[in-house]
Amino acid sequence: MAKVKSFEEESRKRKKNAAERQKESDREYARHKTMRLIRILLILAILIGAAVYFYVRYRGKIYVGYDVISSVERTKVDGAKDVKLGNSILTYSRDGAHSLDVKGVMTWNQSFEIQDIQLATCQNVCAICGYNGHEIFVQSSDSQLGQIQTNLPIKNLAVSATGRVTAVLEDSKVMWLNTYEPGGQNIYEGQFHMSQSGYPCAISLSPNGNLLAVSFLFVEEGNVVSNVAFYNYGPVGDNQSDQLVSAFTYRDMIVPEIHFMTNGAAFAVADNRLMFYSGEQVPTTKKEHILDREIKAVYYDQNYVGLIFASDRADAKYVLRIYNAAGENVAERYFDMDYLGVFFEQGTYTLYSATECYIYTMAGGCKYEGKFDKNVTLMVPTETPYRYRIVTDSSIDLIQLN
């Protein structure tokens, strides 16, 4: 019996010792896990702190000049114009058009003879025709997408990022709004009598080509009336008469411009009002602003709309007002420069002329004010912050602010 009892006691001791060793092991593992977590959190805090530090420095940095990173020679014919087309540069004149990529290499060249050029762009796609002409050239920044032939004279056109084109065609007292695929297939036709619907003075296609916006102008009992109509080319529009999904009437005003910012955001500019719309299927009004002075120019991208007005102050020629896609006025700037263009990027906006450039944050801070070494025809941003391409008559220069 004594031996059995001794064996049981020894067994209990071994079990107790094993339990204590396991508890100690668990405590050691917990301490190791805690220290590892603390180290990870400390490293994350250091990384976040460094990121915040460099972000604050980046946001607060003021640039005083620029370096030319690379330069490509070019020859530009008299009367030619340069515009941004995606990441490429589109140059067009009465004799033709061509596209240059980021390295200055020509990706396509299209010859034609057009006296009164009509140009529509959307992202990296453009459509070119002549006013009263019958042929539309559809191009992307990389390639030629197709040609469209019409049997009636073209008065206006719009293009989507897919290459779909809508053209306003005139036929006596009837206007046609015909939509084509880039290969020339006529996929939608719309007939409008000017005495009933009015004259389509502005059109725009959404980037995906699903929505068409049209501004109609007509006279009713001696008063000017504008109708802004949205047509849906998808299944939602198929269930509506003439694909019409929404329309808005504006009395005593002309709406000469309408544009899509994204597939679900559009805006229209009247002579005394700025209107924003939202909706990818059935657009509705989002916000309106009454304008108190004459508009000189309109600039926009997928995030912002910029309107330039004649200044109401003696110390400046112009004032730029910037609105976001929600229709909110987010920035304003008075300036004297004889501007060539405005563009927006990464919380900043850039004003430039042939000889100088100004970059400001939406909050009003100045990032850069300086002059160009050459006369510039076009300035475009790149994917790298504060690195730009400046186009002149003789070169395309890649510059980096410093």
Outline the fold blueprint.
Layout: H1 2-60, E1 66-73, E2 81-85, E3 88-93, E4 96-100, E5 106-111, E6 117-122, E7 125-130, E8 135-140, E9 144-149, E10 154-159, E11 165-171, E12 174-180, E13 186-193, E14 199-205, E15 211-220, E16 223-232, H2 235-238, E17 244-251, E18 257-262, E19 265-269, E20 273-278, E21 284-290, E22 295-300, E23 304-310, E24 318-324, E25 329-335, E26 341-345, E27 348-352, E28 356-361, E29 366-371, E30 378-381, E31 387-391, E32 395-401
Antiparallel strand pairs: 1-32, 2-3, 3-4, 4-5, 6-7, 7-8, 8-9, 10-11, 11-12, 12-13, 14-15, 15-16, 16-17, 18-19, 19-20, 20-21, 22-23, 23-24, 24-25, 26-27, 27-28, 28-29, 30-31, 31-32
Give an overview in words.
With 402 residues, this protein is an alpha+beta fold. It has a domain at 83-335: Methylamine Dehydrogenase, Chain H (7 Propeller), CATH 2.130.10. Helices cover 16% and strands 51% of the residues. The protein contains 2 helices and 32 strands. The chain has helices at residues 2-60, 235-238, and strands at 66-73, 81-85, 88-93, 96-100, 106-111, 117-122, 125-130, 135-140, 144-149, 154-159, 165-171, 174-180, 186-193, 199-205, 211-220, 223-232, 244-251, 257-262, 265-269, 273-278, 284-290, 295-300, 304-310, 318-324, 329-335, 341-345, 348-352, 356-361, 366-371, 378-381, 387-391, 395-401. It has a 4-stranded antiparallel β-sheet, with no helix packed on it. A hairpin with a 2-residue loop joins strand 15 (211-220) and strand 16. The radius of gyration is 31 Å and the shape is extended.
